[in-house]
Write a structure and sequence with these properties.
Elements (H helix, E strand, L loop, with lengths): L1 H10 L5 H20 L10 H13 L4 H20 L26 H8 L7 H16 L3 H5 L6 E2 L4 E4 L6 E4 L1 H14 L1 H5 L18 H15 L7 H14 L4 H8 L4 H4 L1 H17 L4
Antiparallel strand pairs: 1-2, 2-3
Helix pairs in contact: 2-4, 3-4, 5-10, 6-8, 6-11, 11-14
Amino acid sequence: MRVQIEGFVKSISEKSKNTVLSYRHDIEKYVDFLESNGIKSLFDTTKSTVLAYLLSLQNDGKSASTVNRTLASLRAFYSYLTDGGALMSDPTLNLDAPTVSRKTPQILSTREIDKLLSSPDTKTAKGRRDHAMLEVLYATGIKVSELIALDVRDVNTAAGFLRCRGGAKERILPIGQLASNAVNRYMQSAREHLRGERDTEALFLNLNGERMSRQGFWKLIRTYKERAGIETDITPHILRNSFAAHLLENGADLAAIQEMLGHSDISTTRIYSGFVKSNIKDIYYKTHPRA
């Protein structure tokens, strides 16, 4: 199968470099999928095989445009194989990409956010750490994996930004005054207490002086959900959703939110538009005298 990929790539060499790289990437990922499922020859692929792969992309959270682009790449590949006589039939003929159904993301209201962020007891070192982590998560929309990966050098509270090193590329994100203040309080009066004798660059530490874990933060957020009396289920990703939706609701540019969230495809970011539209509709029907 790898030899056939090389032949296909040579056949489209007149196309732009980016187009060729895109085709190669999509098809190599498809062949990886085939091999991982014990399919050793393209002769053994059917329409169901292709559809199963597209559905796997959808289940992995890939955007509709990514799924459709992949199908276009596979159409071109199979067309090359059938035109050249390597295959008798093309499994992508009359095949439509599966519909990508995206629900409006679950978010917290600004009141719920305020209750959650004010729940930690900032008189204790642990409470100051927890408060700083929650403030940074909501202020930036970063993932929990990116939050716990932060080192001390990644945060500049004087300038009001942090460096997020998660994902494919580094992002520089504003963190705002409240989050900056919370991090400063934590750094000045709590981190050294938690660190003890350990030598670590990690920003957020657990009670053993080690880098906070994902599991530790999940437990933390569940504790403060209950303490705040919030009935809505809360996960770190819901805080990320809330960050994006609240920005968009207050007029932020979709492209800027895409950059802050680190989305490679703006169609992924557009999911938050559904929340804003539905929210506007709710407000209209609740407030317009002739609605």
